[in-house]
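User: Now give one protein:

AI:
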Amino acid sequence: SALAAVPAVTTGPATAITYNSATVSATVNPHSSATVVYFQYGTTDKYGAQSAPTEIAAGAKAVPIAIGLTGLTAATVYHYRIVATNASGTALGADRAVATAKIPLALAITGAPNPVAVGGAVTIEGTLSGTGSANAPVQLQQEQFPYTAGFSDLGNPELTLANGSFVFNELGLALNTQYRVVAGRVASAAVVVSVSLGVTLQTRSAGTHRHPAVRFSGTIAPAEPGSRIAIERLIGTAWKVVGGTVASSTSVAGIVRFAKTISLHSGGFFRALALPVEGAHVAGYSGPMLVRLP
């Protein structure tokens, strides 16, 4: 009969479910007529979208159907059903539902400026991505040199913006510090923000008109006794070392001093470079000084 020739359909389960795709299945008996099949799907049982149609040949046995749905939204329930049409009519499968997967949360951060001057401020900014990244609490953590104490919370948690971004501002950095941000069980990779030594430089004439020389002196803070000092001169667009010394072995009021007298034939711009002796800081430069010879 005509009724018997309408396709017989059964909506099957969904497999291969990701955050933006799923494979939906069904069985269709075309009842001896060439039959066009497709899936209706959408976020309600009113559907609203459909897969590309495909045709199955005439036959009298149930045929398995599997079609991939793509471009889906993560963490969303989708309804779907099989639709089969042949010359005798259209059959609608029962409604079924599948929930797409969540996008795993991930964190990425940067720190700037890096390096930062001793006592300076750093901005740690980043983005939480994945399902649930908007208005989510994130916590800044730090571990200071020598990186043996483990990470500890720094301040209070903040909420991400609608796009998952966040910003932390930290003041008064004294030591090289690694930062990370955590959101629940998810942690960003650590970012090390380096703190450069503070260097001052003074100059005064120390020679004669016939044998000019300049005494370079200054301070390093925080104190790193025995740190190496390079006196550099600007030649063209590059800084060249013209002399060196070692900072004093004792500190006073949190600083160490250095001094070096260098014979010069002409003036110019000079600066001091301080190289740390341990890993608590990174090298620091003084500001440039203009030296004029008599």
